[in-house]
Specification:
By secondary structure, the protein is mainly alpha-helical. It has helices at 7-29, 34-44, 60-78, 83-89, 91-115, 121-130, 140-143, 150-178, 183-220, 229-246, 251-265, 271-303, 306-316, 318-327, 335-343, 349-361, 364-403. The longest helix is centred in the C-terminal third of the chain and has 40 residues, at 364-403. It is globular, with a radius of gyration of 21 Å.
Length: 450
């Protein structure tokens, strides 16, 4: 029987997911995270003597998978944000998202412009914006480690859950500007990008609000089956993204705004219904990490030079930690806590997807520049943040415990939950020091930071 679907690829990828499911707890105890594992698996089965399947960097299938994954993750993360609650008690996340993120993008763009002067300002700005969003999933052990104060974990989790959606319009505008070198045509690209962004906001608001109202009404009147509500929310995320693309608007913005509108209007939706959409995004995110190892890692590292190494190191340290420190001046957090939060800004899923889209949109020369800088930054982040998460969480947890419950590290961030990849094994805290006198534990933020 003939199939249009590449069954060999499907068999290999699904086998990788099964293998990870069998050994994930054991490997995570050795600080081998899911992103690390799937990057390695994607590399091994597509290159060298162990090559079984082949992926094309410019494949429509690869791009579609990446776009769909980011759309689901954006909707799922944003759907846990109640705007009214956010406005009331989001001082620390607001500082990091409203001050730290723009400063990170600007610093990254300036550094890229100095290091890659021949590529132009638009390309440099695109690189700075692509590597700015963070992903708490790469430091999942921190999110489940009760030795780290819950307020700090929530701050890292909330920031990483929302900054990819906020960075999306910057990435789109800068890539649109870099897509052409002709001034008049470039202006047309920018105007078109702005129109797409505005359209995405409008459609996202409409889909999120109407969908939340209808689902809430159906739940109150018992018209909807509890078993199918999670499917309806997943379909709502896909609808917000797809209808925006069909209408010529920005699907990522529509998914992000739609999720935020949904979470604000239907603030009492049940956890199981939201988690179904998150788990779908989690599965697809593993496939994107597989694709990163299969199509981006080798060509990106092949084209990388000393400038890319310098940029990647700076992007993960000074260009991240400096803006974070500036944004938290006067917040009451001590220096060690600020450094801890600044270091754990791993580059993850959003940067991979944005990098793929930029490589596909730009001319070959600019494409190689973006691919090398972005790939090396992500690869270093996956490795360094993955292996440092548990040791630094242990040391910082001991430091925070010594400060006592009134220390600034124990201040609570806004109780919003966002996506993380949970550790499958028991929390590290179970192997930590015994609970305080009286048996009172600090409540963990839960699998999503709740």
């Amino acid at each position: 029987m003939d199939h249009d679907l590449n069954l060999e690829t499907l068999a290999v990828v699904s086998a990788c997911v099964v293998v990870w499911g069998l050994v994930s707890a054991r490997l995570e105890r050795w600080d081998v995270s899911a992103p690390i594992a799937f990057v390695v698996l994607g590399l091994v089965v597509t290159h060298g003597p162990t090559e079984i399947i082949h992926f094309n960097l410019h494949s429509n299938t690869v791009r579609s998978l990446a776009e769909l994954t980011l759309a689901l993750v954006l909707f799922a993360d944003a759907s846990r944000v109640n705007v009214r609650l956010l406005r009331a008690s989001a001082a620390l996340p607001a500082r990091m998202l409203g001050i730290g993120l723009p400063l990170t993008i600007a610093a990254g763009a300036l550094t890229a412009a100095l290091l890659f002067a021949g590529s132009g300002l638009w390309v440099a700005a695109a690189i700075g914006a692509i590597v700015a969003p963070t992903d708490a999933a790469l430091g999942a052990s921190i999110m489940g480690d009760e030795r780290v104060p819950s307020g700090v974990r929530r701050l890292i989790n909330v920031e990483s859950g929302l900054n990819d959606g906020i960075a999306t319009p910057f990435v789109n505008l800068f890539v649109a500007g870099a897509a052409t070198t002709e001034a008049v045509k470039g202006t047309t690209h920018l105007v078109s990008a702005v129109v797409e962004l505005v359209g995405g906001v409008a459609l996202g608001l409409a889909v999120g609000i109407v969908g939340a109202v209808l689902l809430a009404l159906a739940r109150r009147t018992n018209w909807s089956s509890p078993g199918f509500r999670p499917l309806a929310i997943l379909a709502l995320a896909l609808f917000a993204y797809s209808i925006s693309i069909v209408a010529g608007a920005n699907g990522f913005i529509a998914a992000f705004v739609g999720g935020m509108a949904f979470g604000t209007v239907d603030a009492h939706n049940d956890e199981a219904a939201l988690r179904f959409t998150e788990e779908g995004g989690t599965l697809l995110s593993l496939l994107v990490w597989f694709v990163f190892g299969a199509v981006m890692l080798v060509p990106g590292l092949h084209d990388a030079g000393w400038r890319d190494v310098v940029f990647a190191v700076l992007a993960l340290t000074l260009l991240r930690m400096g803006p974070v420190a500036l944004s938290l001046v006067g917040s009451g957090l001590d220096r060690v806590t600020v450094l801890f939060v600044g270091w754990f800004g791993p580059r993850g899923l959003a940067s991979v997807v944005f990098g793929l889209l930029a490589v596909d949109a730009l001319a070959p020369a600019e494409s190689k520049t973006v691919l090398a800088a972005v790939t090396l930054t992500i690869a270093l982040s996956v490795l360094l943040h993955g292996v440092s998460a548990s040791p630094l969480a242990s040391r910082y947890g001991a430091y925070a415990a010594a400060l006592g419950p009134r220390g600034p590290a124990h201040s609570e961030a806004v109780p919003i939950t966002t996506r993380t990849l949970r550790r499958v094994g028991p929390p590290l805290s179970r192997r930590a020091a015994p609970p305080p006198a009286g048996g009172a534990h600090e409540p963990p933020p839960g699998p999503r930071g709740a």
